[in-house]
Amino acid sequence: MNLRDLQYLVALAETGHFGEAAERCHVSQPTLSAQVKKLEEYLGVQLFERQPRKVSLTDVGRRIVERARLIVQQAEDIRGVARASRDPLTGKLRIGLIPTIAPYLLPRVASRLRTRLPGLQLMLYEYQTDPLLGKLRAGELDLAILALPADTTGLETRALFAESFVVAMPRNHRLSARKRLKPADLAGETLLLLEDGHCLRDQALEVCGTVAVAEEQDFRATSLETLRQMVAAGLGVTLLPRLAAEGPIAGARGLEIRPFAPPSPSRTVGAAWRRSSTREAAIVAVCDVLSSTMN
Length: 295
Known about the structure:
By secondary structure, the protein is α/β, with parallel strands linked by helices.
């Protein structure tokens, strides 16, 4: 049993497909399949149930993969220590962002990051909060950008900037005559929200928690863009993070945007990373750029 065998094992467990696992590991499918079979023979247990075009872990396989994943990550950490000792601000940095932040924050900070940290190659991914934190803890990501608070037990966190909420409503809506709104002004409105799993859904419900709004039960959006179109079609109103409502979007056809009167409800955009991470210098440098750009 060697490290490469464990990498094959983890890849197959995560993809559930020999071909995809082989592609991830940059080997042929027969090579990966043969090595996994040899590992099963060495351990004397069946790790996978093999079905046409699909494989799934056995109970013992699941327990072994949990340990194998830790070993693979620790090996990567060893390589990371060596890289960081040479130059901590070079190499790949894997950053995950939640979908309600990524497309609106990245265009604002990309140029600054490239200028300030030219040696870093940023690998960017989008996940909802729970899978994002799961991948961070599993070592598949180095840094998570998300809305705080979240379940970041065992992780380092840092607040980056506050982002206020605004109200999006259809054109000529009764509230569009007002320059600023209060949460109480939304009483009686139909509130459109993202589907379960998006933290923005919970944040919007919290803002409107003391107001008699009716959540639209027949429609749930999977993205802010879909949500925006639903509002423009006259199906209700919604809350948007400020970054998602600025620029050309603010004047989108059929849509009116209004801020809240102070104190405006807001969310905290922050960062999370593993305490054991060998890329902390690079992580802190990225956080410094994000914070200075957005504050």
